[in-house]
Amino acid sequence: MKVLRLITFIVFFISLSVYNSFGQTADSIWPLNRCIEYALVQNISIQQSGLNKEKNMVNLEQSKASRFPSLSGSASGNISWGKEYNGQTQEFGDFSSSRNIGFGINTNVTLYNGFKTENSIKQSQISYEVSLFDTETIKESVCLNVLDAYLQVLYAQEQVKNSEEQIESTKGQLILAEERLNLGAISKSDYLLVKSELASEQLSLTNAQNLLVSSTLNLKQLMELPINSNFYVEQPLFDKIILHEYELNADSVYKLALEIKPRIKSSELSIRNAEIGIDIARAAYQPKLMLSCGVSTGYAFGSNLTFDYQLQNKINPNLGLSLSVPIYQKRQAKSGVSIAKINTDNTQLEAANARNQLRKEIEQACSDVLAADKKYNASLEQFKAVEEAYQVASEKYKQGMLNSVDFIVQKTKLINAESELLQSKYNLVFSYKILDFYKGKTLNF
């Protein structure tokens, strides 16, 4: 049996090597970091968040520009008709027309508005920084989704490989059973039992292949990668990850996460943003002082004076200072301040909820690592014991000391133990990587 399994493994390895040589290229093999980088570029939500960041930058530049004076130019033309009244004769004369044009430049600037402009600039700056952290939060979510889908593909690949190895082993057992049937050493029911086991394993292989196709499709769709792309995930070595000692102090991980996680930074900045909103709302109680100035000139047609002469001598500069003092605003200022305070309280609650949610997630992640580690070790011990029992049963079956029923039962136990070990291994790897994520480490193998 050991010789048969060794031959099966060699054949599988050679076929896999040939497949990799002809079916895969360097560009078609995708490690996890490449999948994540591609997904971060192609993801629509991240692109939309980037546009929101650009919009906030435009708002910031606009708020900064509001500190400067405005400048506008004007030009006007006028034609009028009518009878001119003669005061001496007290009569109206004939119809006459007059034409003139005018030019002007005006500017105005806000000298004081309760520091509303300065606070609006601060608020726009914070809004821009919040959008940066929001983008990073979306990126983290995409990375986790890609990690999960990537591990699902790897898990499905190993299931396919295990199923193929089981089928090759059962084919050898079926040949042996057929020889014994011809010799009359076993009954036909024993032979059909082995044949039925082969059919069952072939169905399991089909299910595993279907799972691999659907898992690969899911990963491609998360990456926004075309379905017809040449795509194979890289098989990493998990030994270092599984054997690595992890710190499971949830409190220390939580303190570290508070300092680095973008959603926490975003919630803290949102509180500051809301507090500035209160100051902006209070500016409605303050007077507003405006400075304006301008200069105008003009030209009247029909005069003996030249165009240049009239423009130079009709220059009329003006300078104005206006003060607006709010007296009664129908509770608009008071309501604005109240709403701004409510928004501040709400952002404080949202920040507290974000911290609580992060703490719960880290506690759950540490608990998952501990549980996954225990399950993996237990599954490994179970697999070793079942595999040893299977080897003994296999030798007895070869020598005719064990019937097909008992042998199939033992083999089924091995298949289940192998499947349990595989599932627990990937569950452990995923839980380790989730803990690395909260520690701010790069998601890679």
Molecular structure report:
The protein is α+β, with helices and mostly antiparallel strands and about 450 residues long. The protein has a single domain, classed as Outer membrane efflux proteins (OEP) (Up-down Bundle). It contains eleven helices and six strands. It has helices spanning about 1-25, 30-40, 45-65, 115-185, 190-225, 240-245, 250-260, 260-280, 305-315, 330-400, 405-440; strands spanning about 30, 70-85, 90-110, 230-235, 290-300, 315-325. The strands form two sheets. It has a four-stranded antiparallel sheet with strand order 2-3-5-6. A two-stranded parallel sheet has the order 1-4. Strand 2 and strand 3 (about 90-110) form a beta hairpin. About 20% of the residues are buried.
Intertermini distance: 35 Å
- Tally of discrete structural domains: 1
Query: Can you tell me the CATH topology?
Result: Outer membrane efflux proteins (OEP)
Round the mean pLDDT to the nearest integer and report it: 87
How do the helices and strands line up, and which of them pair or pack?
Blueprint: H1 2-23, E1 29-30, H2 32-42, H3 44-65, E2 70-86, E3 91-112, H4 116-183, H5 188-223, E4 232-233, H6 239-243, H7 250-260, H8 262-282, E5 288-300, H9 307-313, E6 316-324, H10 332-398, H11 404-438
Parallel strand pairs: 1-4
Antiparallel strand pairs: 2-3, 3-5, 5-6
Helix pairs in contact: 1-4, 2-4, 3-4, 4-5, 4-8, 4-11, 7-10, 8-10, 10-11
